[in-house]
Amino acid sequence: MPAFRTLDDLAPRGKRVLLRADLNVPLKDGQVSDPTRLERLAPTIKELAEKGARVILLSHFGRPKGRPEPRYSLAPVVPALEQALGGRKVEFAHDCTGPEAKRLVARLADGEVGLLENLRFDAGEEANDPEFAKALASLGELYVDDAFSAAHRAHASVAALARLLPAAAGRLMEAELRHLAAALEAPARPLAALVGGAKVSTKLELLGNLLSKVDLLIIGGGMANTFLAAEGREVGRSLAEHELSGTARDILARANARKTTILLPRDVVVAARLEPGIAARMVAIDAVPKDAMILDIGPATAALLAARIADCRTLIWNGPLGAFETPPFDSGTNEVARAAARLTKAGKLVSVAGVGDTVAALHHAGVAQDFTYLSTAGGAFLEWLEGKTLPGLAALEAAAKA
User: Is the distance from CB of 12 to CB of 48 less than 8 angstroms?
Assistant: First the structure.
């Protein structure tokens, strides 16, 4: 686990604290439709404010390509953020380093909170421009990074700012790192990883890193079809990357050499096409019709996976096992998710899950609240699992050494 300072190491009273947050939340009709990220961020904001800091929030929002675009303004986020803070007022500036930002910072009193406009309205943010980072740093006296979901970005407010001011991790960042380290660096064993989703090509590095760390690797979703095809099995018209058959066979061989167990579906649910209400049937993995699509794992596979997970102490989950958004192809994901949740609630399993479709699948199954930890990150969660160095974490480590 990276060595970094936390809020416990800061004396923020009367200080201007630049708090890097991730307020990149979904909007619908001008209002925040899912406040989860705001609610997870709120404890850090409240703690800093209650300790007498002058909290200045920094965040990106969308992809405005280095220039102001009204549709990417952070202004609509303010009401939902105030609600997440229990009614605490949040002042807003319509720029991030200009005159209005400076005026907002100057008038903040101890315990008050301000939010600056979208950092990506300035091209210097994504370019990791030193001058832009210095302009941000001039607004504060301390820096707190609570945006693990942006930690994989070498951007000015993530990678550079932590090197210009005394820096620490916020409570959300701290929790993310603690749980991920517990799941991957020093887990209770046996350790299982469930990796699903559509394509092997997007998760080759993830699979490669996990092979050296886990005892059991479960592959599901469209990814499993590529492995099944590589084994010479019929997958019909299913989503599969046949050009990666050689890569899939190599992964299977490496797993065998390491004595890492890989589980693929034993039975599957097939249909003529993916659409709600279509006729579907369960078939053995060696009986997939050439004109059918594999859209979910079958009941025997779901029962097997639940049983194998019950033999493990730690589970990392990334990706659904089927096309869960379209019933009845949600059954497999639902059954395995509920089994993992029951084990977690019983204190028999540490379960950590992350990335948007995974979290959505667990919510769909009604068990998201029962997992040990759900990461709010997307790309950063994946890159951590891939074993990559994240620029935001490297900056916090460097700040701690300095």
Answer: yes
Give the pLDDT of residue 1: 57
Name the residue range of residue 154's domain. Answer: 7-173+390-401
Give the distance, in angstroms, between the CA of residue 281 and the centroid of all CA atoms in the same chain: 33
Residues 35 and 89 in one domain: yes
Q: Are residues 191 and 294 in the same domain?
A: yes
DSSP label of 160: I
Residue 131 and residue 82 in one domain: yes
Mean residue pLDDT across the chain: 94
Residues 280 and 224 in one domain: yes
Q: Is the pLDDT of residue 379 over 60?
A: yes
Residue 2: per-residue pLDDT:
62
Beta strands in 286-386 (DSSP E): 293-297, 314-318, 350-353, 373-374
Q: Is the peptide bond before 328 cis (omega within 30 degrees of 0)?
A: yes
- 157 and 217 in a common domain: no
222 and 349 in a common domain: yes
| Under 8 Å between Cβ of 333 and 321 | yes
In the predicted structure, residue 228 carries a pLDDT above the cut 60: yes
224 and 130 part of one domain: no
**Is the model's pLDDT at 7 over the cut of 70?**
yes
Instruction: Give the pLDDT confidence score for residue 386 in this predicted structure.
Output: 85
Average pLDDT over every residue of 124-151? 97
CATH number of the domain where residue 133 is located = 3.40.50.1260
CA angle 256, 262, 267 (to 5 degrees): 135
Instruction: Report whether 380 contacts 22 (CB < 8 A).
Output: no
Sheet holding 261-263, edge to edge: 261-263, 216-219, 191-195, 314-318, 350-353, 373-374
Q: Is residue 103 part of a domain?
A: yes
* Number of folded domains that form the chain: 2
Q: Which pLDDT score, from 0 to 100, does residue 320 have?
A: 94
Q: Nearest 5 degrees, angle CA 10-CA 380-CA 329?
A: 135
The per-residue pLDDT for range 58-112, each reduced to its tens digit, is 999 999 989 999 999 999 999 999 999 999 999 999 999 999 999 999 999 999 9
Judged by phi (left if over 0) then psi (alpha if -120 to 50, else beta), residue 232 lies in left
**Catalytic (active-site) positions:** 37, 199, 356, 379
